Amino acid sequence: MKKTITVALKDPALTLASKIVYGQRKAWGELAYSPLHLSFMRPRSSDRGMKGPLPLIVWLCGGAFIEMDRNVWIPELVWFARQGYAVASVDYSTSYRSRYPENAEDIKLAIRYMKAHAAEFGIDPRRIAIMGESAGGYLSAFCALTGKDKGYDTGGHEDYSSEVQAAVPWYPPARMAEMDISPAKLIVPHDIANYADLTKLVKPGAPPFLILHGNSDGLVPLSQGELLYEALEKERVPVDMYIIEGADHADTAFLQTEVKELILEFLKKTMA
């Protein structure tokens, strides 16, 4: 069979660069360096309706602060790229080779790197949201709440700000001192007691938040997300929270289109 067809151009083509080096972290007794990578995905700029600089989502994978894989959730993040967002999924140091708050310093460096290269990547440096799950949820909230704190800006591009315009933490551990953290239940970093209580970082003027949490979370109790929500409300920071009925930690429910559409609505509202 030979046939000529006309194809409607409804969906943009997506591109992925998976090994962009945005910084270095000392390794091997501080005598060597290990690269920090990010994976960057966006609609192809030549496609219809994609010519202007795009808003950016910085994504942080979870892993109890001891492991992470920046590419593990890329298939699910494709949905946001198809809606016209660029996505940077970022490596950050884990407890095997760093101490808190070096993981957050890595992420803030990635934000500044993206701003410094905004024209090259075709992104709008004034429209950046940070989103992450579990440990990545904690770190996304931490980075959003300390955006004006220059004390965490190290490693390069310090002439750019680490501030973001919105934060979307999924099931974040807000106050880990109140969690049941035992080796039988969860392996965590040796310095976990040093991690900041997120509720104490909340100040007026913080960017808007959207918090997602399941009410059947067996690792990070719903009360943790609620603590962050209440602290943000107290300081009159714009915040929405969606509690997903029956959802456990890292549940498939969070990846449904219905939930992604709630996130998209929030991003459109806060990064217009």
Provide a descriptive summary of the structure in words.
The protein is α/β, with parallel strands linked by helices and 272 residues long. Helix content is 24%, strand content 24%. The protein has an 8-stranded mixed β-sheet with strand order 1-2-4-3-5-6-7-8, with helices on both faces. The radius of gyration is 19 Å and the shape is globular.
Keywords:
single chain, about 270 residues, alpha/beta, Rossmann fold, 8-stranded mixed β-sheet, 6 helices, about 25% helix, globular
In a few lines, what is going on in this structure?
Helix content is 24%, strand content 24%.
Present the secondary structure layout.
Elements: E1 14-27, E2 32-43, E3 54-60, H1 74-82, E4 86-90, H2 102-116, H3 118-121, E5 123-133, H4 135-145, E6 166-170, E7 209-214, H5 222-234, E8 239-244, H6 257-270
Parallel strand pairs: 3-4, 3-5, 5-6, 6-7, 7-8
Antiparallel strand pairs: 1-2, 2-4
Helix pairs in contact: 2-4
Order of helices and strands: EEEHEHHEHEEHEH
CATH architecture: 3-Layer(aba) Sandwich
Low-confidence stretches: none
Query: In angstroms, what is the radius of gyration?
Result: 19 Å
Number of strands: 8
In CATH terms, the superfamily is Alpha/Beta hydrolase fold, catalytic domain
Assign the CATH class. Answer: Alpha Beta
